Amino acid sequence: NANPTEAVIVPPPSGTIEPLPLFRDVPVSERQNLFIRKLQICCHTLDFTDTMKSVREKEIKRQALMELVEFIQSGSSKINEICQEEMIKMVSVNIFRCLPPAFHENTGQDATDPEEEEPCLEPAWPHLQLVYELLLRYVVSSDTDTKVAKRYIDHSFVLKLLDLFDSEDPRE
């Protein structure tokens, strides 16, 4: 394992997203680095309002998210503190966003029966669901050091997470 103080974190590049190798295809010694590179790919926010836009990038990000979830779930390699910090940053970049105003707030009309309203569904849900899954797997993993986790999942993080309960999307 590399010394955590020696790791260099590179911000996600702007522009295109390129696929990375699978974890199983790299030596164990390279997996922490690959984990960080996959997290960096997942820090790219993509426009889900247009289904034809960035199709390739969306698929690469989806694959990377699925692999990250599997990697954490497998417990095959304990992730170091830098990886944990970067993972919580990636989770934050993806889930903490401006929620659209509730439908009845937009119209200026009296609130209608909430049962009759169509919920406002989040177009990025296929990726958000995987990000939430990654966070859940990390939190419940027996490999997670709670002292380290508390540094990154702090009071501010939890408050922002609670704010997401205001989402109109029932899946969230």
UniProtKB/TrEMBL annotation:
One of its GO terms (molecular function) is protein phosphatase regulator activity. One of its GO terms (biological process) is signal transduction. It comes from the Eukaryota. Gene3D superfamilies: Leucine-rich Repeat Variant. This is Serine/threonine protein phosphatase 2A 57 kDa regulatory subunit B beta. It comes from Trifolium medium. Pfam families: B56. GO terms for cellular component: protein phosphatase type 2A complex. InterPro entries: ARM-like, ARM-type_fold, PP2A_B56.
